[in-house]
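Try this one yourself first.
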């Protein structure tokens, strides 16, 4: 995700929910079984985190936090909210009550939650560290130096590997062994052929999709060797990536400056659908068969059908909405 101050114009946490999704006969929103989907949205210029019902677009909760930018959440777990001014805040599931505020960071950037839902990893650009938070105990249990500018990150579906991009226009990507999630260790680093922005493991864990900070395509890299396997055409850089792993796995690639979102067959890497986005919709999240995006430049949140990319909803919620995650509320 881009710092607003560096915007001469302008981050994924991607959330997946292993639940049955039912499509209504009238083509309405796909609903996760056992609850209702709620988008947790950071509205940094308003100093708020918003809980927004899907597909109605109704604001259910407002939480005041200073300069919230990145957010990560499990469907029924706490949310991790990152402010680059130096705080990381844990919010309780559903109530969004503050559980803990960590103030030991210098410039935290992106949070991601491990597949088992027990740990959160947070990158700190100023210190170059990856920090590990035990969500149950609400404490930082480890830090590991990865390199200055630590920013976007991706955790493999089995949790054994984590990739970290060093900056929003990364010329270096660091690979960590996270088979012991409480104690990550750096195992290698490499230099992508084009500057990298966002990262996402494919659902089978065999490849990592890396979006560009400059080029109009996404690079698909072998997860073991980091060698280029394929490229996928995309809109204007930078792009962000999210997957729906259920059924036939699909990738979604957003281009905020191109005002587009693409649905890509994760196996064949062919684009199967494309739709328009509100301008500035960089970040996206998925849950069940829902794809949601947030616009940093006009404050609109949109929801799409994850099968067809038909748009179900767009609502303007704030002057700027940067990041979002999807929770499931009773």
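Now uncover the answer:
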């Amino acid at each position: 995700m881009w710092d607003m101050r560096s915007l001469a114009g302008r981050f994924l946490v991607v959330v997946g929910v292993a639940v049955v999704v039912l499509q209504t006969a009238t083509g309405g929103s796909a609903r996760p079984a056992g609850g209702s989907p709620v988008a947790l949205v950071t509205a940094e210029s308003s100093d708020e985190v918003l809980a927004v019902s899907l597909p109605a677009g109704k604001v259910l909760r407002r939480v005041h936090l200073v300069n919230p930018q990145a957010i990560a959440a499990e469907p029924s777990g706490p949310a991790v909210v990152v402010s680059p001014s130096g705080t990381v805040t844990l919010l309780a599931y559903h109530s969004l009550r503050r559980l803990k505020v960590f103030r030991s960071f210098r410039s935290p950037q992106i949070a991601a939650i491990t597949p088992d839902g027990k740990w959160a990893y947070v990158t700190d650009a100023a210190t170059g560290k990856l920090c590990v938070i035990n969500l149950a105990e609400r404490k930082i249990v480890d830090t590991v130096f990865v390199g200055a500018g630590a920013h976007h990150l991706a955790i493999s579906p089995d949790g054994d590997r984590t990739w970290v991009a060093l900056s929003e226009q990364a010329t270096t990507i660091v690979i960590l062994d996270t088979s012991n999630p409480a104690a990550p260790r750096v195992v290698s680093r490499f230099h992508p052929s084009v500057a990298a922005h966002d990262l996402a493991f494919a659902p089978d864990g065999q490849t990592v999709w890396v979006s560009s900070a400059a080029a109009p395509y996404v690079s698909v890299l072998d997860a073991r060797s980091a060698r280029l396997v394929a490229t996928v055409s995309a809109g204007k850089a930078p792009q962000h990536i999210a997957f729906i792993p259920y059924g036939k796995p699909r990738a979604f690639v957003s281009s905020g400056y191109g005002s587009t979102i693409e649905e890509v067959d994760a196996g064949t890497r062919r684009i199967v659908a494309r739709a328009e986005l509100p301008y500035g919709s960089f970040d996206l999240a998925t849950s069940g068969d829902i794809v949601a995006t947030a616009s940093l430049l006009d404050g609109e949140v949109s929801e799409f059908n994850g099968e067809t990319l038909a748009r179900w909803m767009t609502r303007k919620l704030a002057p700027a909405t940067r990041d979002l995650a999807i929770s499931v509320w009773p």
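Discussion: The first strand starts at residue 21 and ends at 22. Residues 236 and 258 are 5 Å apart (CA to CA).
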